Every structure is written in C-alpha cells, then in structure tokens.
Amino acid sequence: MNKKDLEYFEKLLFERRKQILEQLKNIEKRMRTSQQDSSSDLSLYPTHEADIATDAESREENVFIAGNRADILGRIDRALKKMSKKMYGICENCGKEIEKERLECIPYARFCVGCERERER
C-alpha cells in the first residue's frame, strides 16, 4: 500500500474513532438521563409494568450497542497500531494485502475477503 493510501485510511480510522466516541458519550448520557428520570418519579401511582419493561429493554439495548461500539473502537485502535508497525492492510491469516474496497467499508478489517469467508463457515 502506498503512502497516500495509508494517509487516507489513517484519516478514515480517526474519523470513525471520533464518531464512535461521540456515540458512546450519547449512549452514556441517555442511560444516565433514563436512570435519573426513573429514580425521580414522585408519582403517587405505581409505575405500570409495561413502562418498566420498556425501560429495561431500552437499557439492555443501550448496553448492547455500547458493547458493540467499544469492540469496534478496540479494532480501530489495533488497526492504528498496525499502521505504526507498517502492517496495516495485511490479512492476519494469509498475509496477503486486504482489498482496498474492503478497507473502504471496514477500515479496521483484519482479514481479506477470502479468509473472512472461511472464518464464517
């Protein structure tokens, strides 16, 4: 991979990293707000079971999304480290260059398309 391509993918990785950090901040804020709202309910009437279930489902969804984003963040950080070691864009399985089209979609990809297909089987 040439220097221009590496600079492009490095910029792309940092942009994705920034987006994910922003998403994680928003999820944390939503979870904190939801928790504060549920603990500050001063109503004389008990909360309806459906509302409790909806809140629990929303919290569970936020936890799942946050976990997914944290995983992607880790992959991005690994890809950036690989860049500094001049190993970025190399399939961790077969050692061949990962297709640029794949890196366009998933700049933190660890495997080429062929090896990824094999892993999924």
UniProtKB/TrEMBL annotation:
InterPro entries: DnaK_N, Znf_DskA_TraR, Znf_DskA_TraR_CS. GO terms for molecular function: zinc ion binding. The keyword Metal-binding applies. Transmembrane segments: none annotated. A zinc finger (dksA C4-type) spans 91-115. Pfam families: zf-dskA_traR (PF01258). It comes from the Bacteria. Coiled coil: none annotated. Residues 88-121 form the Zinc finger DksA/TraR C4-type domain. Keywords: Metal-binding, Zinc, Zinc-finger. This is Zinc finger DksA/TraR C4-type domain-containing protein. It comes from candidate division WOR-3 bacterium JGI_Cruoil_03_44_89.
